[in-house]
Write a sequence for this structure.
C-alpha cells in the first residue's frame, strides 16, 4: 500500500535549496516568537519608577556657636555660614581674614592651630567675585575642622596669613602661580611650580588647554642630540605615528640651529 504522507527530509539528505528554505523558516519562527513575547511584555503592567532620593544639601549655620561668637567679635565681617555633611564653612570679608584667623588660632576655646591647606576656586560664570580663597583649618587638641572662605574680584589681592601660620607661605605662592591671585604682605610673592617667565595661570577655568606650542617652549626647548633623532626614526619605522591624533602629527614649526625638533608623539 503506497504511503501518501510526505516524510520530512533529514538534514543529511537535504538539497541546498531545501536547507536554505529550512533555515529561513526557522529564522522566521524565531522572529515571530520574539514579537509575541515582546507584545506580552508590553501588555504587562510596569512597576512604578522609584523616585530618586535627593542628596544632601548645605544648610544654614548662622546659629552655630562658632559663627555666633565670630559675629559678636567681628561685627560685619562674617557674611554668611553654612554646613554640609558636618563641614562648617564661614564666609569672611577679605579685609578681615587675618584678624579672624588670628583669633581662631589663639583663642583657647577654638584653637585652630593647624592650617591644613589654602586653595582657590575659579567661577568664571559669576558676574562678580569669580575667585574664592578657601582656608582649611584644624584644631589638633579638639579634633575639629572649620573652613573659611573669601570672595575676590578679578585683579583683587588677598591678605597673606603668613604671620598667623608660617606654612601659608608656599600655599599662597602656589595660588599665585596657578590662579594669579596676589597676597599682600607676603614675604616672597613669586611663582613656585612654573618657570618665572611662564605665561598665564593654568588652573583658571578660562586657561587655554589646547595642545599647542607656546612661546616658553620655543624659547627654552633644547636642540636635539643624535640619540633623540634615532628615537624619532625608530618611532616612524614602527609606524607609531598612526597612534597620534592629527594635531599631534604636525611637526613643531621650530628650527634651532638648523636641527629638527622632536615631534609631538604620544
Amino acid at each position: 500500500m503506497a504511503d501518501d504522507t510526505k516524510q520530512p527530509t533529514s538534514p543529511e539528505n537535504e538539497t541546498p535549496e531545501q536547507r536554505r528554505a529550512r533555515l529561513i523558516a526557522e529564522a522566521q519562527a524565531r522572529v515571530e516568537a520574539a514579537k509575541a513575547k515582546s507584545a506580552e511584555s508590553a501588555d504587562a503592567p510596569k512597576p512604578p519608577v522609584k523616585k530618586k532620593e535627593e542628596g544632601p544639601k548645605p544648610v544654614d549655620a548662622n546659629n552655630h556657636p562658632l559663627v555666633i561668637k565670630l559675629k559678636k567679635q567681628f561685627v560685619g565681617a562674617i557674611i554668611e555660614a553654612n554646613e554640609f555633611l558636618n563641614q562648617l564653612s564661614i564666609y569672611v570679608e577679605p579685609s578681615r581674614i587675618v584678624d579672624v584667623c588670628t583669633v581662631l588660632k589663639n583663642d583657647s576655646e577654638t584653637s585652630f592651630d593647624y592650617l591644613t591647606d589654602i586653595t582657590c576656586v575659579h567661577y568664571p560664570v559669576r558676574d562678580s567675585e569669580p575667585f574664592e580663597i578657601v582656608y582649611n583649618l584644624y584644631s589638633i587638641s579638639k579634633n575639629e575642622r572649620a573652613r573659611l572662605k573669601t570672595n575676590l574680584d578679578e585683579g583683587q589681592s588677598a591678605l597673606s596669613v603668613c604671620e598667623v601660620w608660617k606654612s601659608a607661605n608656599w600655599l599662597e605662592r602656589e595660588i599665585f602661580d596657578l590662579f594669579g591671585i596676589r597676597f599682600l604682605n607676603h614675604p616672597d610673592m613669586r611663582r613656585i611650580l612654573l618657570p618665572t617667565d611662564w605665561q598665564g595661570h593654568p588652573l583658571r577655568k578660562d586657561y587655554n588647554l589646547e595642545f599647542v606650542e607656546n612661546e616658553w617652549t620655543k624659547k627654552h626647548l633644547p636642540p636635539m642630540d643624535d640619540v633623540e633623532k634615532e628615537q624619532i626614526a625608530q618611532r616612524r619605522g614602527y609606524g607609531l605615528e598612526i597612534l597620534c591624533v592629527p594635531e599631534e602629527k604636525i611637526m613643531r614649526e621650530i628650527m634651532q640651529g638648523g636641527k629638527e625638533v622632536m615631534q609631538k608623539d604620544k
